[in-house]
TrEMBL record:
Domain of life the protein comes from: Bacteria
Transmembrane feature ranges: 79-98, 110-131, 138-158, 164-186, 198-219, 239-258, 278-302
Sequence ranges of Low complexity compositional bias: 1-13
Pfam families membership: BaxI_1 (PF12811)
Classification via InterPro entries: BaxI_1-like
Keyword match tRNA-binding: no
Protein name from the UniProt record: Bax inhibitor-1/YccA family protein
Keyword field: Membrane, Transmembrane, Transmembrane helix
Start and end residues of each stretch annotated as Disordered: 1-25
PANTHER family: CONSERVED TRANSMEMBRANE PROTEIN-RELATED
């Protein structure tokens, strides 16, 4: 189920038995409580011991700090912290992009966009490939900062071309994330193996199409005319292909969020260490940034075609 987002390609989010390899084993994750209770009954422990066991079940559940284990609430706070860093980076990227814009030089700088994209890509690979051995929050915070630089730079770039587009894309992104989270929390939507297979096939197809489109744009092929290449071409009813395909991609990104939420819940059930909450936040950030960029591009294509 974690194949969609490499951040969750870790035994902590997939293998229920992985808890056995964590420090403290199943007892530290409170997974052995039922066994202890049953053993106490069968061994005929005295009333005081039985009362202590019953009191353990009646007591409020321990949080992530007390248990050292991953929890949904702790992961939410870690995720919010990462997005706060991304927001600061986005402001810096926006200011940097617009700093050199003057009437004599109306072109914004693409340096924040390029540096943020490259730095974020490199750090994401480092985080993904080292997470099996050790979770390094500093690297994840670094990724959030670079990704913020990229988001701020590209947002400023599009805002100069289409005034108000950033607000539109932000509201649309928050709406999709909010609705997806609400539906998942209510149990109305869940990840399934069949849907995930379809999702993975669609992702591969979209990736291949994107690479072809970029190649046509680089070589300035006539078929790829327009600022967005093939995506700028008109489709059914005069609607640009970028808008039609973009809507489908947004649906894929929303399903990717469902998979992310599901993987986090699985990590909690598996008794993953608390530090894996950073990896959960990282995975959600990857998906949300992807969703925002796609929505930003959809709106840009739609507005440029008018």
């Amino acid at each position: 189920m974690a194949l969609n987002n490499p951040a969750f390609n870790n035994p902590a989010f997939q293998d229920p038995k992985a808890v056995q390899t964590y420090p403290g084993g199943p007892q530290a994750a409170n997974l052995g409580a039922q066994t202890q209770f049953a053993t106490a009954q069968s061994a005929g422990t005295d009333a005081a011991a039985q009362a202590r066991l019953e009191g353990m079940y009646a007591a409020p559940p321990a949080g992530a700090v007390e248990t050292g284990r991953m929890s949904v609430e702790d992961t939410v706070w870690k995720t919010l912290g990462l997005f706060a860093v991304l927001l600061v980076g986005a402001v810096a990227g926006w200011i940097w992009t617009m700093a050199g814009v003057t009437p004599a030089n109306p072109d914004p700088s693409i340096a924040p966009w390029a540096i943020g994209a490259l730095g974020g890509f490199v750090l994401s690979l480092v985080v993904i490939f080292t997470s099996r051995k050790k979770i390094r929050p500093a690297l994840i915070f670094g990724y959030a900062a670079f990704e913020g630089l990229f988001v701020g730079g590209i947002s400023a770039f599009f805002e100069m071309m289409f005034e108000g587009i950033v607000l539109q894309a932000t509201l649309a992104t928050l709406s999709v994330v909010g609705v997806t989270l609400a539906l998942f929390a209510s149990g109305k939507i869940r990840a399934s193996k069949k849907a995930t297979k379809v999702f993975l096939i669609a992702m591969v197809g979209y990736l291949v199409f994107s690479l072809i489109n970029i190649g046509l744009m680089i070589f300035n092929a006539p078929i790829a005319g327009g600022a967005f290449g093939l995506l700028s071409q008109k489709g059914p009813l005069g609607i640009p292909w970028g808008v039609l395909i973009g809507v489908f991609v947004v649906i894929m990104a929303a399903y990717s969020l469902v998979l992310d939420f599901d993987n986090i819940q699985q990590g909690v059930r598996n008794g993953a260490p608390r530090q894996y909450g950073w990896l959960g936040g990282f995975g959600i950030m990857v998906t949300v940034v992807w969703l925002y960029i796609e929505i930003l591009r959809i709106i840009a294509i739609a507005r440029s075609s008018n």
